[in-house]
UniProtKB/TrEMBL annotation:
It comes from the Eukaryota. The gene is Vigan.04G179500. This is Chromo domain-containing protein. It comes from Vigna angularis var. angularis.
Length: 95
């Protein structure tokens, strides 16, 4: 199932299915993805969504929620200082 349908139950009764009617507008353009030899891909962050400060061992750690794919909302929490070093363009214009 696609990630945007992850909240649905993965099992359907056959009575809930309908015949597919082909439509040219249903064709999706595939992205050109460069797959490395170790079968990984390089993702570029799209934007910073949220900020958070944690104190797990007494010292503050600033985390940011990074959106990696704008279409399906894939995101991860990353350390702010590491992201600033790797992707400074994400922080231009932010306070």
């Amino acid at each position: 199932m696609p990630p945007q349908l992850a909240n649905l139950h993965p099992v359907f009764h056959v009575s809930q299915l309908r015949r597919y009617v082909p439509d040219p507008s249903h064709v999706l353009e595939a992205d050109t993805v460069q797959v490395k030899e170790d079968l990984s891909i390089e993702m570029q962050p799209v934007k910073v969504d949220e900020r958070l400060s944690k104190r797990p061992d007494g010292k503050a750690t600033r985390l940011i929620k990074v959106i990696w794919d704008g279409r399906n909302g894939d995101s991860t929490w990353e350390k702010e200082e590491e992201m600033k070093k790797s992707y400074p363009h994400l922080f231009s214009g932010m306070s």
